[in-house]
């Protein structure tokens, strides 16, 4: 089959270049612009990388128009229904579903790495009690690079695999301890006999003084939410981990940079921002329409948090799944204490989806719109929501990092720019300014 190309003609000089078109398994083909600068002296300009493929990847596929999300080719809906978070971790990292024996071995391996060096506990006491848990998690995960550095060869697949096991295993411990420290509660140690989600809930809410059994429906909902948040193509935090890792930086330091990026309210911090928005709406006494109008007002920085997405121009498939979990969890609530939040979310969704402003811009609920309502119902504090997102996304970050490091042709990422600053000018002595 003849290779597809596109031809670019420089109208000012008549010079032209044929650029190869790189064909995907699915999704848009890409134009290979690597020869462009050498041939015609041009860079390409794409702030925010809206139309730029930063890499070739085999891990996650998204179709923003159709609302498709697949991990290693498996639709997210099927993984949500049949898989578990640790099985999904295996799939994302190794590229295939494990046999029963392989999954058992993987779970045992993860259970061997859930503890952290006792010295790491002292890092927590350096934070103020009111420090945001994302700040704590970023600092503590970054500190892991001080514990695992000298003996790690990031060019050795086996060493990279150990890093992945350590991060998957330690994130719940580090995350739960971020909460325990802020509350002045003793750190609870991981329990191998509990599932991944149960162990996290145990470390979050158990106390040494009495036995604690995680609520099975909360553990099931959390495991599902972790699956839905595990990876998402080249989103901002994943691109950060890839860029940091491309300089051959310590992978724990690269993941700490990913945590920093995820924290922003335009990205993973939106789940916390959605609840703050819903609470403000409920407490303001103002109609929901008032907030929808504010979100449309260009002079107002207010945005409908949990709405819109860089890629999805239809319903985020994860939001559909989480919306259902929301109903299941809140339907089982005896006192309906959190139903008001969900009711407001549903009303906001209905108004926005029928408003031309949102329709014309293809703004739909994204994964963050409903996840916070579940976390509130589970008793997870607001400032821990993005910590849970980071815990889930760690497997995506480290799988994408491993894919990049496995590529012999991988190079340090170094974007260029369109310089629009001052032309060359001479220094002026201060006496003449
Ligand atoms: C995540 O990339 C990923 O995959 C991320 C993520 C993952 O799993 O990693 O999916 C997780 O980050 C989900 C997104 C969570 N963020 C929010 O919910 C915050 C609210 N959303 C917006 O900030 C915004 O929609 C973004 C940041 C999500 C997307 O930003 P874009 O692609 O830059 O959107 P845009 O600015 O190009 O929007 C187009 C138009 C603009 O209006 P016009 O200039 O055309 O008139 O839509 C408007 C925007 O002002 N718009 C919104 C809006 N989102 C976009 N208007 C009101 N409310 C909103 N939420």
What's the layout of helices and strands?
Blueprint: E1 5-9, E2 16-22, E3 30-31, H1 36-40, E4 60-63, E5 68-71, E6 74-75, H2 76-82, H3 85-94, H4 100-111, H5 121-124, H6 133-147, H7 157-183, H8 196-205, H9 216-228, H10 236-246, H11 251-262, H12 270-284, H13 288-296, H14 317-331, H15 339-353, H16 356-360, H17 367-377, H18 385-406
Antiparallel strand pairs: 1-2, 2-3, 4-5, 5-6
Helix pairs in contact: 3-18, 6-7, 6-11, 7-8, 7-18, 8-9, 9-14, 9-17, 9-18, 10-11, 10-18, 11-18, 12-15, 12-17, 14-17
The chain binds s-citryldethia Coenzyme A.
Kindly summarize this structure in a few lines.
The protein has 433 residues and is mostly helical. The protein has helices at 36-40, 76-82, 85-94, 100-111, 121-124, 133-147, 157-183, 196-205, 216-228, 236-246, 251-262, 270-284, 288-296, 317-331, 339-353, 356-360, 367-377, 385-406, and strands at residues 5-9, 16-22, 30-31, 60-63, 68-71, 74-75.
Structural class: mainly alpha
Kindly report the average pLDDT value. 95
Strand order of the largest sheet: 1-2-3
**Beta content:** 5-15%
How many helix segments? 18
**Secondary-structure element series:** EEEHEEEHHHHHHHHHHHHHHHHH
Low-confidence stretches: none
Tally of extended strands?
Answer: 6
Helix content: 40-55%
What is the 3D shape? globular
Chemical compounds bound to the protein: s-citryldethia Coenzyme A
Q: Describe the largest sheet.
A: 3 strands, antiparallel
Q: What Rg, in angstroms, do the CA atoms define? A: 24 Å
Report how far the terminal alpha carbons are from each other: 66 Å
């Amino acid at each position: 089959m003849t290779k597809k190309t596109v031809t670019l003609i420089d109208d000012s000089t008549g010079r032209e270049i044929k650029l190869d078109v790189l064909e995907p398994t699915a999704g848009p083909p890409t134009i290979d612009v690597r020869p462009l600068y050498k041939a015609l002296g041009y860079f390409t300009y794409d702030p925010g990388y809206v139309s730029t493929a930063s890499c070739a990847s085999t891990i996650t596929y998204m179709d923003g128009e159709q609302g498709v999300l697949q991990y290693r080719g498996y639709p997210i809906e099927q993984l949500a229904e049949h898989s578990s978070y640790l099985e999904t971790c295996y799939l994302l990292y190794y590229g295939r579903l494990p046999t029963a024996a392989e999954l058992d071995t993987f779970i045992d391996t993860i259970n061997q790495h859930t503890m952290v060096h006792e010295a790491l506990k002292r890092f927590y006491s350096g934070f103020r009690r009111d420090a945001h848990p994302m700040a704590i998690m970023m600092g503590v995960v970054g500190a892991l690079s001080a514990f695992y550095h000298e003996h790690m060869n990031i060019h050795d697949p086996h060493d990279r695999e150990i890093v992945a096991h350590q991060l998957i295993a330690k994130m719940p411990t580090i995350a739960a301890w971020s909460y325990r420290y802020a509350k002045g509660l003793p750190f609870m140690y991981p329990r191998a006999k509990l599932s991944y989600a149960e162990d996290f809930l145990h470390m979050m809410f158990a106390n040494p003084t009495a036995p604690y059994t995680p609520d099975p429906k909360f553990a099931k909902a959390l495991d599902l939410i972790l699956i839905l948040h595990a990876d998402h193509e080249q989103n901002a935090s994943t691109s950060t981990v890839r860029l940091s890792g491309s300089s051959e930086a310590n992978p724990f330091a690269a993941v700490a940079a990913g945590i920093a990026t995820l924290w922003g309210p335009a990205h993973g911090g939106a789940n916390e921002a959605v609840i703050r928005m819903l609470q403000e709406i409920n407490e303001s006494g103002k109609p929901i329409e008032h907030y929808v109008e504010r979100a449309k007002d260009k002079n107002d920085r207010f945005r409908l948090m949990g709405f819109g997405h860089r890629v999805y121009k239809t319903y985020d498939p994860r939001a559909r799944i989480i919306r259902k979990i929301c109903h299941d969890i809140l339907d089982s609530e005896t006192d309906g204490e959190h139903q008001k939040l969900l009711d407001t979310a549903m009303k906001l969704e209905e108004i926005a989806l029928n408003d031309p402003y949102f329709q014309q811009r293809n703004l739909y609920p994204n994964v963050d719109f409903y996840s916070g309502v579940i976390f509130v119902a589970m008793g997870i504090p607001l400032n821990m929501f993005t910590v849970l997102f980071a815990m889930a996304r760690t497997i995506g970050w480290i799988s994408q990092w491993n894919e990049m490091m496995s590529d012999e042709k991988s190079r340090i990422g170094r974007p260029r720019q369109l310089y629009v600053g001052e032309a060359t000018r001479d220094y002026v002595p201060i006496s003449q300014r």
